[in-house]
Design a protein that fits this description.
- There is one protein chain.
- The protein is of the alpha/beta class and about 180 residues long.
- It has 2 domains: about 1-55; about 60-180, Rossmann fold.
- It contains 7 helices and 7 strands, in the order αααβββαβαβαββα.
- The chain has helices at about 1-15, 20-30, 40-55, 95-105, 115-125, 140-150, 170-180, and strands at about 65-70, 80, 85, 110-115, 130-135, 155-160, 170.
- Helix 1 (about 1-15) packs across helix 2 and helix 5 (about 115-125) packs parallel to helix 6 (about 140-150).
- The protein starts with a helix and ends with a helix.
């Protein structure tokens, strides 16, 4: 279903028959007969498609990856918090060290494991990256994408597949695919 949604978003967006993100989101939901529970996914994917070309035209070294600290297992995590978020100890108790390692292998300049949007905004202002990828729940991702857009920073977002602020999950394969754009 997600790939079907992405294809339709591309078709609608590339046709020029739209005026804004929410119009494209509504159109896709209506055409596919999807319930409102799909609206967050469609909304983020519309914005990903809008920014995709600009994102692809940036250097990997100039990109920042933001991961939410809620991906960690708080009972097993050996990381410590600092001024720039959680400093991952690479203990392997969660998916974070694997993602950090892959991002570094691909050539990403910096990876931050953050507790929320306020630190993301601070880092965006201080570091002025060429582009960003964020993993988060819809509300956090929505706000971060808007902040990046205000600063003319192309972004890509990946929604958490399990939310709840503790022991959350994301689709690792989808994230790795976005990292390689």
């Amino acid at each position: 279903m997600k790939n079907r949604i992405r294809r339709l978003i591309s078709k609608v967006y590339n046709s020029g028959a739209h005026s804004d993100v929410h119009e494209v989101t509504s159109r896709v939901l209506n055409v596919l007969g999807l319930s409102d529970e799909w609206s967050n996914f469609v909304d983020i994917e519309v914005r990903n498609i809008i920014d995709r070309d600009a994102f692809k035209n940036t250097t990997k070294e100039g990109r920042i990856l933001f991961l939410p600290h809620c991906l960690r297992d708080p009972e097993k995590c050996k990381g410590e918090y600092g001024d720039e978020g959680l400093m991952c100890a690479g203990c392997g108790a969660c998916i974070i060290p694997e993602i950090v390692e892959k991002a570094k292998e691909i050539g990403y300049g910096e990876v931050y494991v953050v507790p929320g949007g306020s630190l993301v905004y601070k880092i965006l202002s201080e570091k002025e990256p060429e582009a960003v990828i964020g993993v988060a729940c819809y509300d956090e991702l929505d706000q971060a994408i808007k902040k990046a857009s205000e600063k003319n920073i192309p972004s890509q977002g990946v929604l958490l597949t399990k939310t709840g602020c503790v022991n959350t999950e994301t689709n690792k394969h989808e994230l790795l695919s976005k990292l390689k754009l």
